[in-house]
Amino acid sequence: MGVALARAAQWTAAGSGTGTLEITPLNESLLNQIIKFAEDFSTRHPQEAAFVFREPLEWQTQLDCSVFGEGYEINEATVQSEARDKDGQPLLLLTASTLRVRSFDQLSCLLQIAMEKKLKEAQTCLEANRDPIVKILGPEYGTVEGEDMSMLHLLDRMKKDDDPETEMKMKINLLLHQLDLQLLNSSLKHISQDIRLSPAAINNEVDLLKNFSGKGEDTVLESLEYTSDYIFSNGCRAPPWRQVHGEICYLAIKPHDTDPLYITCSTAGVFLNGVSNNKGFHGGQKSTRYCAQIGLGVFLEYEESKIYCIQDDQSYGTAQRVEELGRLELFCLEKKAAKKDTEEERRSSTVSLKIKKKTRGVSSESVKIRPASKWYGKSSGRFEEVSESSSETEEDEEQPIRHQEGNTDLPSEYWGIQKLAKYLKGGNPTATLIALCSMRDFNLSQETCQLAIRDTGCLEVLINLLDTEEIKCQIGSLKILKEISQNTLIRHAIADLGGLEIMVKILDSPDNDLKCLAAETIANVARFKRARRTVRQHRGIKRLVGLLECVSVGSTSLTPYQAKDTEVARCGALALWSCSKSAKNKAAIRKAGGIPLLARWLKSSEANILTPIVGTLQECASEPSYRLAIRTEGMIENLVKNLSSEHEELQMHCASAIFKCAEDKETRDLVRQYGGLQPLCVLLGNSENKQLLAAVTGAIWKCAISGENVSK
């Protein structure tokens, strides 16, 4: 069992404490098998079930004294089993919330008593006892770095003596070893379902590309061939000794205008040979004709006239590619028929951005971004970002709207900020702080003021101030950035200038005001995919989850220190809410241990923190692992409770979360058991708030799948 827990089970990042078991389908399957093994142990192996553990399995239980009945002695908050060892010590002892179990017999009885809480109890027990065999049989039977050495130890002991206890330990160890193999087998079945590429899928992709290869002008490639014609029985063309590493086949590709390329196709993806840190086939392809024909989206044009094309979206399937290629052919015909791009239009569509580079010895470069043709619409954003969620909203694909502003008819605020710019750029810390305070006196919610800060070069200065050691200047800068980052153009500019990376570092600051402002600004900026990816790649998700680890929830009166901690958690939840629109970020939140913390804050009575918490949960509820966690962590009860809140936005997010979670029958039953159907029906009467009405209607629709809910 130790090997399965170490290798197969999925654990969260340790964070500030020990890691916890993620709520995933794989872990649920492993836990259910362990529970069945323990429940049946006393019936199938009565002698071994009476064996007293070397040390008790100890964990914090959710069970109270009232669930224990015959066979147990109850004295106020203490429960002892009548069954005792040879020294008269109870084999089960519950003191307050600490539970100690010392035999399989008592473990079996406990799981039967726990009923619907048995899954949570098993999870907590294994989290507190990462290698339970050590507690059961002794440290010499432990698992070291995922390797089980207990069998070798047993054989050694059996040679030396014929002790009955050693024979009993051998039997128990063999039973646990058998369970270990069963768990590992089960985990392999689950893992095999997650393989992204198969020989059949690659075959289909190659056949599709071959249709667009040849000598013609409209073809994307000159040739595309497998390096081997021999196909093994499993569909792979790679030799067996490479198949064990996941490799499927190899391709030789000849573009029209570059040297041949050699590709390795594996279960993990498609890779260009001979390129370090490459990002796949399209990421390494530099053929300008290929890029023009296949329509990969945005091009970056450096002053040295080198052209690189951004990687194609890996989430595209065959059907989508066929559709896009069909549309591309139509687009090419229209483009040949009418060339309307004049020199003035190209000049107006070219935007120069100053990219701040922190590479040693390299000055900032002017990078011109030329958007792909208007035919691509919002899809160009999809090609810019690699491997993000395909289910993100239109706001995630937002493209900055460039304003052509002249120097006439600008309000006085614009010129006022322009005058402040020189003091902000060239002053000492005191002058800089005064300039920051003066800038805050302007109405920063006005677009004119926001763009004035960008146009005068103040935005670069504000971001540079974040990298100083002057806390007051950092706070002043973040207060301004938090306000102006409501603007789409400013959000993109902050990301381009490296502001997100610095703000993620600030999340480690001991100053709570700084952490709050940084998290709120991240929440504003991370509304498009590239920004969310930057936060994740710089370990921002783990830091944001860490902001939720604060005071105990549910306190009626908070000290000023606890109130500030609660505000930090609220700001962290806001940032997680924005970041959770990405599938990879949802997985990162789960791995960082965010689910138990979100469940904990869901019990709060403060609407200002409940709204981002529920918003994050309903965003993540599109993933099966989150739906399972919301059900098993007891969150449905709190979601139902908050349907009766006075805040309509909170009601809307609760209804939306129920709508997504009610895919599962167990969740639909829980909504009915906790009385959630009545408040949902009451909210149907609110016809003015269309968003709330849509969420409530969806929740009722999903709940109505169950016949019991319909009659209710």
Automatic annotation (TrEMBL):
InterPro entries the record matches = ARM-like (IPR011989), ARM-type_fold (IPR016024), Armadillo (IPR000225)
Question: One Pfam family name from the record?
Answer: Arm
Q: Which Gene3D superfamilies match?
A: Leucine-rich Repeat Variant
- Using the UniProt annotation, give all residue ranges assigned to the region (Disordered): 380-410
SMART domains per record: ARM
Where, in residue numbers, are the ARM repeats? 498-540
Q: This chain belongs to which protein, by name?
A: ARMC4 protein
According to its UniProt entry, this protein's organism is Lophotis ruficrista
- Source taxonomy: Eukaryota, Metazoa, Chordata, Craniata, Vertebrata
- Record gene name: Armc4
